[in-house]
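Fold description:
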Amino acid sequence: MQRRRRMPRPHPARRDPRRVNPRSAPPLPLHRRVLLAIERDKGSVSLGNTSTGRLIRGARLAHRGKHHRVLSRWRRRGTSYATDELLTLLLDAAAKVARAHPGSRMVVGNLSKRGGGNIPWSRSHNAGRDGDIAFYLRRGRAQVLPRGLVKIDRHLRAHRQRRVRFDVERNWTLVAALLGHKTIQVQWIFVANHLKAALLRYARGAGATPALLSRADKVLRQPTDSLSHDDHFHVRIYCSLADSLQGCQDRPPFWPGVRRHDKAVSRRIRILQRALADPSPHYRLLALEQLLRLRARSAAQAVARRSLWDPDLRVRRAALGALLAWHSGDLPVVKAISRFLTRAGGGISNGGPPLDSAAGRAPDRLRSARQIRLAYDTVAATASPRYLPLLLRAIRSRRGISRARGLRPLPEAALAISASLSLPDLRLVPPLLSALEHPSGVVRRLAARSLRRLANHSMHLRWSSPMGRRRRRRAAARWRRWWRRNRGRSRESLVRRGFARLTRRLRALSTRRAQRILVSYTRRGDHLGYNAHRMLRVLSGERSHCPPGPCSIRHGCWVRWFRRRWRSRRRRQRMRHRRRRRHGRRRVTGIRSAHRWSWHQKSAPPRRRRAQK
């Protein structure tokens, strides 16, 4: 009988991971443990700020509870979702009010939608950290449960219900319960000023502590950019530690004693940067998603250095999306994107076959046409002068970038000119002049548009209409003659000359009339509207004031700025004029006051007296 051969046992590290003893398995790296914990998390997550954020796995507030209920009209809206922390705060506060005043029930309005985002009834409530609570009302000593939000006047009476009053005692118990929670921190309780005064007046008489009164005085606030909140409380809480580590963003102010999570977030960003070098593309992609949620602009250099050249297509696409969202103009990021666009086989080239949209058929498998377009979008969004050498070469490119099937390839010069539209630099004029004779009509139209923006001047030529070759050459020659005459001027002088051709009132830009004309130009969508917007941003001294956007929104923003600015100036001028008139009267009427008064009485016509009945 032949003896059976004994098979050698495999090494423990080479065994099936499902059969390996967890005690003998090597410990996972820290970044993998963090990412696995994020994947396994089943709780609610508040992302972004309260105006532009969203809610993930939001918890739903029951429509009826032991100490609360949701208004019937608000139930149909589907806005009863919030973070776990906000629901805990509301339910604990409702229970505390019910213990202090037996039989009391909290009435709740809007919280957030299931996935967060905008709701048509409020500008906030996006991230699950805002909640509307109706006032506690009473008739006599009994509580009144309203069917909706009831307005309260300055006499603490309900609108159109004179017997129903604002229950100061119960509402102060609610405010004290919200502010005194042990783990959840309240940032704002929006309420009208007259109701805030009534609450603080009652609290002082009830013997509230000075610390609680000081905090209530800060947190209770009537908003300045919305309604007065005389029909409900609007409660907003700070981000929890778990939400801050996943991308929740707090806005100032931060009251004394509020626990900040900046150090923990910085440590989380450093851990996620290590995950960019993980051998598994799944963890690299997950780390990029988390960095994008955290708005970790400090990680832009690491992303550009490592993930921009990742062999996985999804990771490269996520890296370009993160760089586009962060608008980073740091020198290492600019160098990485420039190298990404100029490397052989993809990006800038003077000829050759078009770059295909599919990564597998592209000449360079690390670059596809979609990624090239995304990289140029990043250049346009950043608008950094450091991209100028790249754009000067890319405008002269003859390569085509493939689009959808059946469409002609998009010239790379068109992408470069689109990226240069937000970069006002006169060094772009020579390559743009050569692009006016490009065989592609898209490139010619974009080059003419960029020249009009740079020069604030138009040759009254419609480049969008079809042109013959002779007419095109004549138009390009006109632009070249104009550039020879104005080559030595600065861009600011060119912009002023362009406006001066339309009206002579813009010579002194500090005057009210000149700024009013500039504000009227912001309504236009051409080069005049673009340059008027830029000049007003310089004159206002606020780079972030009235950001670029649609013409109607931009124009309305500048109209409001103009009214605020010149209304205050006109008030000051009127006060000065009144003071001068008063001081002048006193000087003139010092000695001759009696003589002037007697002369006035003699020369003035006699007044007619009314007949007494």
